[in-house]
Design brief:
CATH architecture of one domain: Orthogonal Bundle
Oligomer: single chain
Organism: Gryllus longicercus
Bound molecules: CU2-O2 cluster
Radius of gyration: 25 Å
Strand content: 15-25%
Strand order of the largest sheet: 5-14-13-22-21-16-17
Largest sheet: 7 strands, mixed
Subcellular location: Secreted
Structural class: alpha+beta
Distance between the termini: 17 Å
Family: Belongs to the tyrosinase family.
GO molecular function: metal ion binding; tyrosinase activity
Protein name: Prophenoloxidase
Length: about 675
């Protein structure tokens, strides 16, 4: 059972007997290639380890237990690859469990958790569910002072007498800082978990079997494009302008960020970034990057985009100006192990994270660790994440603008007409979506090294009233058709309070759902509930403590899918007076789009839209973001540049109002299983 192989223990406690919990060390010093036999302890369970040849951990031992681990750093990628290779090569589940148990206390816990996560997702004998990272490593998600309170609760009170420790919504800044208006989005635990899990599902570096996922470069583009679109929707909901691209890397960065997170392992805080910090060349043991490197890579990538071709490391030419170009470009720009030429095009996006993360101490003279931008568990907290990724998005947009617009024929689905679309929130007027605040609890017991019994942290997050779509569709032919329903939402009004042109509004659409449907001849009304979305994960993966997950092998589990956008953040905040938005629904011809492959009934359709379908090809042949990913055809982008002109009969729009109520609802009881 993969629940028991994660544990986060400072090295100094490893041989201690504290509060009745014994953690046994393997009897050997360095493991080397010695074999290990005997009992070892995983949390409260003792695993009897048979005669297992313990692999040489090599580079994975270079990172001390007190340091951070992040795939943004090239040195850490080598360590992770080595450890993941070991974990994937073990021939049976039992050996995997035993070796995991034996090496757990040897390697850095963040590195261990990452390698185990990738192994669990890529082995075929494990449950494909990862434990909740916020419960395992609460120091990466909750402010340090809260953790001190949790220690007190755990040590002074019996489990039944403990109170939840509550975190206010305003714990990192005040409203003097305009950027703080969207802190509820940046610091949302579910969003930070979703980003981390996405990167574990789609690692940019590691063994080929883990990295070489269908359309992974394109998924990198699309997931982050959607994060920016969603962030901009929240900004427009809170009277902020759309995020500015971080274009000039030699000018000061006005946005400050003070994370107030502790690093639980090293007893240090995550460094802040003051307002107007300047990026500098980085000279540290784990990264050597010049700003000039970034500029050179950017210009080479832009040249490849504008000439429509890129060069491989063996000097062959690869065309970019086609549907596959975005996938190649995503791997180049991120960059991943799949980059066709990392010497020429570099490591632009990852290195940008590192340079920003080290702006406060680029040469390690102050012995300071990286800022939150240096870790994919914490990066979204910082406003500069979105400025950096708005730049990255802009590069991708440049590529998309080189592709011919979709023709009317490519957009149409002959014989299928969408007559009417609307949304209905429970107990509300039609075509209104309602948001409010809600409290929810995390049980961080497993992240507090020696606690027993639940210790709850209570957070306040955005929530929406459940709703459904009602889509009336007419199949005018005399045979059944297979359609793909694609649902998006965008703000109607820009920062100046003027209506968006379609050419501009197109970039603001957030995907809400995407699902296949059978259309018999005649009229049909499709009802689809908000919590069925293939963009989101089930809330229990966001809030539920891992200990509540039932044990079992894969065949006993149907709720394993935990990659996807958090359900509670599906709908942007909106405004007290109502934020006017455009709901866009298209039904396309699924017979032309379906990917022929064998998919098991329990495959992870929940959340596949942003994450990909784990263990399978992406099930929709269309470019991600279709049909809104390319510039509109000429007759749309001219004088009548509005969405009405874009529509073909298989599309329909509705005006939807997003209303925000400032009330806060109490926590919902955790599901009892
Ligand atoms: Cu997800 Cu920059 O890629 O953080």
């Amino acid at each position: 059972d993969n629940r028991n192989v994660f544990f986060n223990v400072p090295a100094k406690y490893l041989d201690s007997r504290i509060r009745g919990l014994t953690l046994l060390r393997p009897p050997y010093g360095m493991l080397g290639s010695a074999s290990f036999v005997g009992p070892t302890q995983l949390d409260n369970a003792t695993v009897e380890v048979p005669d297992v040849a313990v692999p040489d951990l090599g580079p994975a031992l270079e990172l001390s237990r007190e340091e951070d681990f992040s795939l943004f750093f090239p040195r850490h990628r080598v360590m992770a690859r080595h450890l993941v290779d070991i974990l994937l090569s073990l021939p049976t589940y039992e050996k995997f469990l035993c070796v995991s148990a034996v090496i757990r206390d040897k390697v850095n816990p963040y590195l261990y958790a990452y390698a185990m996560s990738v192994a669990i997702l890529n082995r075929n004998d494990t449950i494909k569910t990862l434990p909740n990272s916020a419960c395992l490593f609460p120091q990466l998600y909750f402010q340090g002072s809260i953790l001190a309170g949790c220690w007190t609760e755990a040590h002074l009170f019996a489990p039944e007498d403990r109170e939840p420790i509550e975190i206010s919504r305003n714990w990192t800044a005040t409203d003097l800082e305009p950027e703080h208006r969207v802190a509820y989005f940046r610091e949302d635990i579910g969003i930070n978990l979703a980003h981390w899990i996405w990167h574990v599902h789609n690692p940019h570096s590691g063994p080929p079997s883990a990295v070489n996922k269908d359309r992974r470069g394109e998924l990198f583009y699309y997931f982050h494009q959607q994060i920016i679109a969603r962030y901009n929707f929240e900004r427009l909901s809170t009277e902020l302008s759309r995020v500015k691209r971080l274009l000039n890397w030699r000018e000061p960065i006005p946005e400050a960020y003070f994370p107030k997170l502790n690093n639980g392992l090293a007893s240090r805080v995550w460094p802040p970034r003051q307002a107007d910090a300047r990026l500098q060349d980085v000279r540290r043991s784990d990264a050597v990057i010049d700003i000039l490197d970034l500029e050179r890579w950017r210009d080479r990538i832009m040249e490849a985009i504008h000439t429509g071709r890129a060069y491989t490391s063996t000097r062959e030419t690869v065309q970019l100006d086609n549907d596959q170009g975005i996938d190649i470009l995503g791997n180049i720009l991120e960059s991943s192990d799949l980059s066709i030429n990392s010497r020429l095009y570099g490591d632009l996006h990852n290195a940008g994270h590192v340079v920003i993360a080290y702006a406060h101490d680029p040469d390690f003279r102050h012995l300071e660790k990286e800022g939150v931008m240096g870790n994919s568990r914490t990066a979204l907290r910082d406003p500069v994440f979105f400025r950096w990724h708005a730049f990255v998005q802009n590069v991708f947009d440049e590529h998309k603008s080189m592709l011919p617009p979709y023709t009317e024929e490519e957009l149409s689905f002959s014989g299928v007409h969408v007559r009417r679309v609307e949304v209905q929130s429970v107990g509300q007027e039609p075509n209104e979506l309602h948001t409010f605040w809600q409290k929810s609890d995390y049980n961080i017991e497993r992240g507090l090294d020696f606690s027993s019994g639940p210790v709850l942290v209570r957070v306040t997050h955005l929530q929406h009233v459940p709703f459904f779509y009602r889509i009336q569709v007419h199949n005018t032919g005399n045979r059944a058709r297979n359609g793909m329903v694609r649902i998006f939402l965008a703000p109607k009004i820009d920062e100046r309070r003027l209506p968006f042109s379609f050419s501009e509004q197109r970039e603001f659409f957030i995907e809400l759902d995407k699902f296949p449907i059978k259309l018999e001849p005649g009229l049909r009304t499709i009802i689809r509930w908000s919590n069925e979305s293939t963009v989101t994960v089930d809330p229990k993966h966001t809030f539920l403590n891992v200990d509540k997950l039932p044990p079992g092998r894969p065949d006993q589990r149907t709720d394993k899918c935990n990659c996807g956008w958090p359900q509670h953040m599906l709908i942007p905040r909106g405004h007290a007076e109502g934020k006017h938005s455009t709901l866009f629904v298209m039904i396309s011809d699924y017979d032309k789009e379906r990917v022929e492959q064998k998919v098991e009934p329990d495959a992870c359709w929940k959340g596949y839209s942003y994450c990909g379908l784990l263990g399978h090809r992406y099930p929709d042949k269309r470019p991600l973001g279709f049909p809104l990913d390319r510039l509109p055809r000429d007759e749309v982008s001219g004088i009548n540049d509005n969405i009405e002109t874009f529509l073909t009969p298989n599309m329909k729009i509705a005006d939807v109002v997003l209303r925000h109520n400032d009330r806060t609802a109490p926590p919902e009881p955790l599901p009892v299983r």
